[in-house]
Amino acid sequence: MRQLPGPLSSRQQARRFAPWLALPVIAAFALAAFAWWWKQPEVPALLGKPQWVDEQQCQACHADAVKAWQGSHHQLAMQPANAGTVLGDFREQPLDSNGVSTRFRREGDSFWLNSEGANGQRADFKVAYTFGLEPLQQYLLELPGGRLQAHDTAWDVEKQQWFHLYPEQQVDSRHPLHWSGSQQNANAMCIECHTSGFQRGFDADRPRFDSRWQALGVGCQSCHGPASNHLQWARGERQAPSNHGFALDLRNAGNQAEVETCARCHSRRSVLGGDPSPGGQLYDDYQPAGLSAQLYEVDGKIKDEVFEYGSFVQSRMHSAGVRCSDCHEPHSAKLRLSGNAVCTQCHNPQARPRRAGIQAGGLIGKDYESPDHHRHAAGSIGAQCSSCHMPGKWYMQVDYRHDHSFSVPDPAQAQALGHSDACLSCHTEDKPQAIIQAFADWYGHPSVPHDGGYAQALSGARAARPGAAAALLTQLGRRDLPGLRKAALLAELPRYPSAAALNAALQGLQHPDPAVRLAAIETLPALMAPQQVAQQLPALLTDARRAVRLAATWQLLQLPQTLRPSGTAWQAALVAYESSQRTQLDRAEALSNLASLYQLSGRDAEVESLLRQALQRDPHFHPARVMLAQHLERSGLGQAARELLLAATQEYPQEASLQHAFGLQLVRQGERAEALRRLEQAAQLEPDNGEYAYVLAVAWHDSGRAAQAIDLLRRQLQAQPGDRRGRLALAGYLGAQGNHEEVQALREELRDINPEDPLLR
Question: DSSP character for 222?
Fold first, then answer.
């Protein structure tokens, strides 16, 4: 776009009006016009696209912020390895952990690890960068192709000793978590959040990385965005609106903008493609992980390594307007105050929040530091707010991280639902019932749980307890439910179909939180016919958030060709989806996604090449191997498909997905006996996998082993009462044997879980 012309100088203006001054008829008009022009403020030159700058310039105006930042975990997140930055003792004895040995060596200012490489052979690898500061420091080793890999041996800063990140596993070169593999590739997995202005720079044709960054460490521009326009504004060269030349004014943007800025690193998320830049919307660059059973406890507390965002946005404090910098000084990242003082900024006898903008309606005036409240000796660990309301977990062996959902202890609920609890986790020497009774004596029995029944409803849905469907719908009707929690409930609806469930999912498509819209998109296909999906989802192709647009595109691609949308919006959506994957060609997942896109859109000629590239990137990414075998089989290369899966099951005999896929392939090829053996092996390797159990039961029944099939389905349904397909198959097999009494019992059990289930009709 051409830049608009800037204001004229006074001499240029005078020259422009000179011819008119020679005409007496309009001289007066010209003079008046000239006077009007002269009085107008100069039109500022337009601000250009912001560029990254050298942050040495920031200190001149922001000395206090820079001083606080210096020496922080952010500044020292990634450093060149040298005598001044490496904390580990490279003169130590070798570390042997579960059959894996690592040796250490220092030569002057160079540091070396002797370890098993990708080929299974031991070699010396030079440490290129340090990663982190404390409680542990990791080390990045440079491999051919520009790859920087995070080694799985780390230095415990407190204990001053080496340790292995996976001590219970024999992580050798054949293991997916080996330091040389895709899952430990720092170019794709780590460096973005340890540098400023990171560009992955993967060249798929060579293939190699040429990763670049503006600066090591998390600097000013990592949060505020590229500062070229800000510097021009500060020098008076340009005028800027209230954001002073930044894409985002963090100071005045509100808590959501600040929290999402921090979440770009402090969250479990997947990248949507490209090189994200600060200042944009979180769901345009990333898709944060939901509250799945693998990542979060049923009450929303952290479980797997998910960082802070997912727990904090569930909290009442987030909904009240609290932001990260209310508790953490934004430049040093340290707590603003020590001990309970950081909490009593708001939770005090006056019920007065620390600043305007935080809603005070939910605050209760009280002396929260009194033993009358916390019931522990003053100054003890139990008297600390964080001990009860921010219980944490250990990650990477030595890194203790606090939960940020600010939950209220509830030992009775924890005992009933199986989630952790601050009281039960601390007082392990006491019987749980004694803790539960003492808690009830102190605080009474609330008629409604502190979370409004969310955890009970989610737990009931996952366990398919009686009343599960009704409880789900009740919770989904709440207006005060945080978006991630509503999304978690929507994800359970496919097992509880009804008209009300469909209506809840349709309402989710209109929800202001993109997390809810994403969950609704994934839920709808299980609750309605493809023709209805084709009517509902096209509107989401132009959603405000990129993550939602991509999800809608993917779901519409699953429909038959005749039901997919047409027109410019659909074509643009397909281009955007393909572009998103093509910016991540270093990842096996993206290559497999592209292969799926091409297969669904009739570009079969490119599918095989993409899947083979995926397996070159990550030999442990088994979905690509299964998909490749299926593609070869569809292409008339059944023998090649068979050889591929046979070799895979021999190389990875404990991988259930490969045994299952091979079993299904053998069924299609008519080799029933060997197929059954493979299907049985898959079910044995993953006994909790409902899909494997169902397929095996059907195979057993069709091969004349009805009793075994029925017994397996009974056990499966007992473990997973919400398995509707397994319930239907079991009822059919029992009915064929004339066991109508048990069939009726299955129906009644389903009626208790979801009285509106269509199966009951």
Answer: H
Listed in sequence order, the DSSP H helices in 228-350 are 228-234, 255-263, 282-285, 309-312, 316-319, 324-327
Question: CA 655 to CA 622: how far, in whole Å?
Answer: 9
pLDDT (average), residues 45-54:
80
- Which residues make beta-bridge pairs with 328? 335
Write out the E strands in 157-197: 161-164, 195-196
CA 283/CA 685 separation, integer angstroms: 37
Q: How many helices (H) and strands (E) does the chain have?
A: 34, 17
Residue 12 dihedral angles phi and psi, to the nearest 5°: -65, -40
Mean pLDDT of 59-70: 94
Rounded to 5 degrees, what are φ and ψ at 16?
-65, -35
Nearby residues of 159 by Cβ (< 8 Å), 6 or more positions away: 398
Place of tokens 């991509």: 550
User: What angle do the packed helices 656-668 and 690-702 form, to 10 degrees?
Assistant: 30
Helix (H) or strand (E) holding 175: none
Residue type, 716: Q
At which residue do the structure tokens 């370890």 appear?
A: 115
Give the predicted TM-score (pTM) of the model: 0.91
168 has a pLDDT exceeding 90: no
Cα separation, 240 vs 5, in Å, equals: 17
411: confidence class by pLDDT, cuts 50, 70, 90: very high
CB 680 within 8 A of CB 686: no
pLDDT value, residue 45:
53
Strand pairing class (122-131; 147-150): unpaired
What is the Cα–Cα distance from 58 to 55, expressed in whole angstroms? Answer: 5
- For 711-757, give the secondary structure using H, E and C: HHHHHHHHHCCCCHHHHHHHHHHHHHCCCHHHHHHHHHHHHHHCCCC
What pLDDT digit, counting tens, does each position of 69-83 carry?
Answer: 999 999 999 999 999
- Run of H or E residues at 202: strand 202-203
**What are the residue ranges spanned by the domains of the chain?**
1-43, 78-217, 706-761
Which of these, 687, 688, 682, 631, lies nearest to 659 by C-alpha position?
Answer: 682
DSSP letters, 504-535, are HHHHHTT-SSHHHHHHHHHHGGGTS-HHHHHH
Q: How far is CA 530 from the centre of its chain?
A: 29
